[in-house]
Amino acid sequence: MSRTDGKYDVAVIGAGHAGVEAALAPARLGFRVLLLTLDRLAVGRMSCNPAIGGLAKGHLVREIDALGGEMARAIDAVGIHFKLLNRSRGPAVQGPRAQADRDGYSAYMLGVVENEPNIDLKDGEAADLIVTGGEIRGLVTATGEKYSADSVILTAGTFLSAVMFTGDRKVAGGRRNEPAAERLGERMRTLGFRTARLKTGTPPRVRRSTVDWSRAWEQKPDRPPLPFSFGTESIDRPQVSCWITRTNDKTHDIIRRNLDRSPLFRGEIGGAGPRYCPSIEDKIHRFAHQPSHHVFLEIEGGDSDLVYPNGLSTSLPEDVQEEFLRSIPGLEECEMVIPGYAVEYDFFPSDQIRRSLETTLVEGLYLAGQMNGTSGYEEAAAQGIMAGINAANRCRGDRPLVLSRAEAYIGVLVDDLVTRVPREPYRMFTSRAEHRLILRHDTADVRLAPVGAALGLASEAAARRAAEKDRDARREIAYLSSRTAPFHEANELTERLEAGPVRPGTKVVEILRRPAVSYDDILPLRDGEPLPAPPLRREVEVRVKYAGYVERQIRLVEKLKKMENRSIPTHFAYEEVGGLSNEAEEKLTAFRPETLGVASRIEGVTPADVSLLVVYLDRWERTEELS
Ligand SMILES: Cc1cc2nc3c(=O)[nH]c(=O)nc-3n(C[C@H](O)[C@H](O)[C@H](O)COP(=O)(O)OP(=O)(O)OC[C@H]3O[C@@H](n4cnc5c(N)ncnc54)[C@H](O)[C@@H]3O)c2cc1C
Predict the structure, then answer these.
(1) pLDDT per residue over 289-347, tens digit each?
(2) What pLDDT does 627 receive?
(3) CA distance 364 to 371
């Protein structure tokens, strides 16, 4: 028997990306945690792409780190190809991403969990929940062991009543070579919970030594790599390249010819798949006009002999997968080691959880991760840490921690889940966040380290570092705002940069605000004041350049609250609203809402979409008045 005689403060079911963070948070806060999972060797396993982060997802990872979670440190330890995405675009939409050593990532997370003294990690299947008087009391495993717990966090991922499909082969299982969890979903239904079906898929894997790399285009990693964790000083692990190739007419012909052999097209899979990460057969069918699609060849680890062809998710039969792989430049002679497949699974429509992620039906029972209708490791981990924090808060009689939409992408994620039920796997995008200029990935520490430290989860040192960063940035901006630019030097500079003339008495901060001027350009306009370190210069530059936008954004959100009854003309041209997501444009055009309030509640229309509508509506009304 365990060191706790079967009595725990918190029990976590499932040790995927949600489960690991959900267990670590209460354990680090001093609570006794049971982490029960089907197979300990699958702790933190990456079911699909061997990568962490990406647009908006990278923000979530840095927020998890600032709160005191593990995901950022894990990827910093095992990342093999770091890249800041959208580097050439505005700071709000840039996102850090890194390819991982797939097995290394799992091994790292297993090590962290095993070395956490307050976690008892056990292999086993949770089959039943002990509930009395509407309150959770514990769980029972498939082999009959009973564990009592004050709170239980369910993070079963894609495993509930899961079925995997490759062509006409259909097997029960949540992931390749792993069983499905049948009993727990059934038990949840007897407790009154509703379930629905979703699906996702993964590409085949090919042998690295059989790829002709000379036929693909090399993408080098960032040098130096930008770590995810605010506590990591540098990434020392050797980095590898990623390679890009493309599908072509031949690939598309093979797939089109075999669409009737796809379980998706034969109607065998009922659950909706991720709109933004479709299978290759779906892409070829839906975007029939596109002659080719990118394929990113990502090595699964420094020493791994497997390559992940990102972009080729499929559930077509194995022979078709082999045939279309070999039509792609660089893969002509490739050996397919593992075929791709789709998986369909149960999830709990998210109107059954509160903002704390506690269920509405059973007190002390929390749901986190893919089971709430989301998709992605980062979305799962973000919910995991919040459920873990809130289970711990419940143990100590504290109010739940709820982050607002203006504080964090995590706040946006949870708010979206409790206001609209995902009909397709939900993934995070920067466009979902109306405050995205405030919620930049590089400000996650300033926004959330104090929250993490107040909880006792993030270290005092991390909170101090964030406070110093903020104070130093403010101090430098105050200095640049008070310093008058030396007239001749300033004019010489702006002339060279084609940044417009400078009047006598202009402050240095006003010159930095000009788009063509970087912080390093204004260095000669400072006096002997000590220079800030390079990361702080970037921070100052971004804060100065975007201060106006940020203030406007906050005012706009305030204004939005008053916009509930504002009419939208029936003939309003949604297709002219730049930046509106495809989904919002589609739904608004179909529904033609009468007011902004109604528009804002249509599923798929985000607050960010509504903000754009306001701007275009103003413009539209001005032109209508003039015409
Ligand atoms: C084939 C496939 C393809 C995918 N493709 C993509 C993709 O393209 N893009 C994307 O963003 N995401 C994709 N995903 C989803 C991604 O894997 C998940 O978003 C992420 O892993 C969710 O994390 P989680 O912690 O919620 O669940 P998981 O990582 O699935 O972890 C769940 C854990 O719970 C355990 N468990 C389940 N039931 C029980 C039980 N009754 N008792 C004990 N333990 C239990 C399991 O063993 C597992 O360890 C894919 C998943 C699969 C399986």
Answers:
(1) 899 999 999 999 988 999 999 999 999 999 999 999 999 999 999 999 999 999 999 99
(2) 60
(3) 17
Cα distance between the two ends of the chain: 80
**With 80 as the cut, is the pLDDT of residue 234 above it?**
yes
Query: Between 99 and 276, where is the model more confident?
Result: 99
Among 253, 262, 255, 301, residue whose Cα is nearest residue 106 = 301
CA angle (376 as vertex; 335, 17 as ends), nearest 5: 100
Residue with tokens 């918190």: 10
Ligand 1: distance of its center to the CA of 477 in Å? 45
Separation of CA 503 and ligand 1 centre (Å): 60
Distance CA 325, CA 206 (A): 9
pLDDT band at 167 (very low <50, low <70, confident <90, very high): very high
Distance from the CA of 157 to the center of ligand 1, in angstroms?
Answer: 4
Kindly state if the Cβ of 181 falls inside 6 Å of ligand 1.
yes
For ligand 1, atom 51: residue with the closest CA: 47
Q: Using CA positions, which residue lies closest to atom 12 of ligand 1?
A: 376
Sign of the Cα torsion 578, 582, 583, 586 reads positive
Cβ atoms of 18 and 380 closer than 8 Å? yes
> And the tokens for 235?
């990434």
Nearest residue to 351 via CA among 373, 336, 335: 373
Q: In the chain, what are the domains?
A: 7-156+349-455 (3.50.50.60), 205-340 (2.40.30.260), 460-557 (1.10.10.1800), 562-626 (1.10.150.570)
Cis check: omega of the bond before 50, within 30 degrees of 0: no
Total residues belonging to the chain: 627
Q: What are phi and psi of 149, to 5 degrees?
A: -155, 145
Q: Which of 145-149, 168-172, 567-571 has the lowest mean pLDDT?
A: 567-571
Q: State the pLDDT at residue 1.
A: 41
Q: Regarding beta strands 119-123 and 33-37, do their DSSP bridges make them parallel or antiparallel, or are they unpaired?
A: parallel
Q: How many CA atoms lie within 13 A of 272 on its CB side?
A: 13
| Contacts of residue 97, Cβ cutoff 8 Å, sequence gap at least 6 | 51, 52, 53, 54, 55, 57, 58, 82, 83, 84, 85
pLDDT of 194 higher than 50: yes
Q: What residue has token string 């430098």?
A: 476
Residue 623's CB is within 10 A of a number of other CB atoms, namely 8
Sheet of strand 79-85, all strands in order from the earlier edge strand to the far edge: 51-53, 95-100, 79-85
pLDDT tens profile 548-595: 887 887 777 677 666 667 888 878 889 989 889 888 998 888 778 877
- The candidate with the shortest Cα–Cα distance to 441, out of 53, 152, 110, is 53
Which residue's CA lies nearest to atom 18 of ligand 1?
A: 376
Q: Band of the pLDDT at 4, cuts 50, 70, 90?
A: low
